[in-house]
Amino acid sequence: MKIAIIGISGKLGQYMTQHCLDLGYEVVGVCRPESVGKLARFKDRITVFPGRTNDPEVVRRAVENADGVLTVLAPWGVEDYASGTVRAVMDNAPKDARLIFSSGWHLSVDGKDRYSWKIHFFEKVVGPVVRALRVVDLNDQHRAGKLIFSSGRRWTLVRGSDLEEGESEGLPIWAERAHDPRLAANRTRRTDFALFMVHALTDEGLVQKAPAISAAA
């Protein structure tokens, strides 16, 4: 199975790469040219297409004939980076490919998730500040989410809790709502977030769902 990882050089991308290789998948990826060196440990086991993840031509070459696409939705800058990345993937991925996207709990399919004061504070107070500084645009992640939800494609949006480093604790649990009591721990090892993303490629029960995930309480 050929898997394209869009945003392959970051921590999550590298964990997903290792999980895919462990399963015997062919791995290709997209990352900024200045970040290619971060992938040196994978050497000739992967193919890297240097470029921005919202560059349609770079993404087109990477996702050609891919069975699945794992995409890290990064909200960097104020130039529609996340939504542009989604458009590039949607416009170029094979019609039947599994499209798996990552985000935090703050994205919601229907607006019915209930959130802690921390998430509300981050969205309402921190969000406008970092956007004014032209660092991060959380609103663009919401636009990206709407593009995914309305696409009609075989998508899954994996919504991660607070992330931490450490040895794997196994596949996280998931629920359709971020406020589900089973997710009270609100923590996930980053390697296990990546593991769930890779797992979603072959879990038909997650098609067109936005699972909120966490380690078990």
TrEMBL record:
> Per its UniProt record, what InterPro entries does this chain match?
NAD(P)-bd_dom, Polyketide_Oxido-like
Domain named NAD(P)-binding is located at 7-204
Q: Name one Pfam family in it.
A: NAD_binding_10
Protein origin, superkingdom? Bacteria
Which PANTHER family does the entry mention?
FLAVIN REDUCTASE (NADPH) (PTHR43355)
Q: What is this protein called?
A: NAD(P)H-binding protein
Q: What is the lineage of its organism?
A: Bacteria, Pseudomonadati, Pseudomonadota, Alphaproteobacteria, Rhodobacterales
